[in-house]
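To the wet lab folks,

You asked to see what we're planning to order before we commit. Fair enough. Below is the target structure as tokens, and below that is the sequence we designed to fit it. If anything looks off to you, flag it before the synthesis order goes out.
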């Protein structure tokens, strides 16, 4: 049943939704396989209502109860356009209310169709981290995806913020919605019918989404999946994504190497990302993982690598972004040769220190995964641009030990000069040493 402009429907929380016109030409905001999304007025605010088609749910009561349960539990984070209220049944169907997508966010699918692009590399990496964080937080709350696809993500391509939608098929671990999903996003063991969705299969789907995000092509679609004018059948899909999947950059099995036409983006971009990122994809789509129920990469592994990549994105004075090793330098597209003057050496990581570089809680706070909160920034001495310092942006008092061995506190907004051999204790004995990089001859 299609809804009409001005129509009102009651909800289980004794409120009403009123259908609003989405645009000059149409009432609905969008339409998918399960139903129609409308713009509505709810509790004095503009919201979205997903209204289901009849007979599109295998078990309507179970589906309804699951959404009701998810509403009661609440969203994992504000990044989820989570169900807020359910309507009463009307003519054998129903809908749920969720936040409306802000105008600055666009469909991830538009990016895959090259209709929109990220403003900066930093925004792209931020989007990747936000998607990983969404999976992580969802799993922490005891949920897993049941119907993941490119329609699940809205992205702000200016800064990389991500909103996650279509959460009506999300279910608790051990439960199954009955929605098959799309082969291109499902783990091979689900395509083969060996198991149902769970956290490990979600993590495979995460690897697929990240590959699509970073390389613009699908990780399993290469030479083997190109059939010319032939129609791709269900049997073909089961083979490509289930019984005989092959990673397009598998170093041992080149049968499905990238096709020049369908994998042009991946061919171009693969060598442009850091080796440690490429290594993770090789591991994620390893032959044994694709053909058995091997353990998938944890979200924390992806997050750590992406945080490292972000810290190695250095903006030249001309404004162009570059990737630079912590102990080296780079030649910018503008033609200027730039040197990284120093780096911060932790036990397990090195962070380049360059004017404008920032550090985050996940780097300076022990056992912390907060990649959004800035805790330090590399600044230039206004009186002498050759002198750099690290400014404490956190509420934690650092202990800084200089070459004379004397420790000194550095509070919020205080600056530590960047000089070789200085040791900073960021708290709880989480220390790093500033090491000057060698000047090239």
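Sequence we intend to order:
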């Amino acid at each position: 049943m299609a809804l009409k402009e001005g129509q009102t429907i009651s909800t289980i929380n004794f409120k009403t939704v009123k259908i609003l016109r989405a645009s000059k030409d149409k009432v609905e905001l969008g339409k998918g396989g399960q139903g129609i999304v409308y713009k509505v007025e709810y509790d004095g605010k503009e919201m979205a209502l997903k209204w289901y088609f009849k007979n599109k749910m295998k078990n309507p009561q179970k589906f309804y109860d699951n959404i009701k349960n998810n509403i009661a539990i609440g969203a994992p984070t504000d990044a989820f356009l989570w169900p807020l209220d359910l309507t009463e049944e009307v003519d054998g169907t129903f809908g749920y209310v969720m936040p409306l997508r802000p105008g600055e966010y666009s469909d991830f699918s538009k990016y895959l169709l090259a209709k929109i692009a990220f403003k900066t590399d930093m925004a792209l990496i931020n989007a990747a981290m936000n998607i990983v964080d969404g999976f992580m937080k969802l799993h922490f709350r005891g949920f897993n995806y049941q119907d993941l696809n490119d329609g699940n993500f809205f992205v702000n391509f200016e800064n990389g913020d991500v909103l996650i939608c279509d959460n009506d098929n999300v279910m608790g671990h051990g439960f199954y919605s009955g929605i098959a999903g799309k082969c291109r996003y499902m783990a091979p063991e689900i395509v083969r019918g060996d198991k149902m969705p769970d956290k490990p299969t979600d993590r495979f789907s995460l690897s697929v989404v990240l590959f699509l995000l970073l390389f613009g092509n699908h990780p399993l679609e290469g030479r083997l999946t190109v059939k010319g004018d032939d129609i791709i059948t269900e049997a073909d899909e089961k083979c490509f994504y289930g019984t005989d999947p092959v990673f397009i950059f598998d170093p041992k099995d080149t049968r499905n190497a990238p096709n020049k036409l369908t994998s042009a983006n991946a061919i171009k971009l693969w060598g442009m990302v850091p080796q440690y990122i490429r290594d993770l994809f090789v591991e994620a789509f390893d032959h044994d993982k694709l053909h058995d129920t091997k353990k998938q990469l944890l979200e924390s592994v992806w997050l750590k690598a992406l945080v490292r990549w972000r810290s190695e994105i250095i903006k030249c004075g001309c404004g162009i972004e570059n990737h630079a090793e912590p102990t080296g330098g780079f030649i910018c597209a503008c033609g200027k040769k730039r040197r990284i003057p120093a780096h911060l050496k932790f036990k397990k990581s090195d962070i380049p220190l360059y004017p404008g570089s920032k550090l985050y809680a996940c780097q300076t706070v022990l056992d912390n995964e907060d990649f959004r909160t800035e805790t330090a920034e590399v600044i230039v001495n206004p009186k002498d641009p050759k002198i750099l310092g690290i400014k404490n942006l956190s509420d934690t008092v650092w202990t800084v030990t200089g070459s004379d061995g004397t420790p000194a506190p550095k509070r919020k907004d205080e600056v530590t000069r960047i000089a070789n051999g200085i040791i900073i204790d960021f708290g709880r004995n989480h220390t790093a040493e500033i090491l000057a990089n060698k000047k090239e001859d």
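Structural context that might help your review: The longest helix spans residues 121-140. The first strand starts at residue 8 and ends at 10.

Thanks,
Computational group
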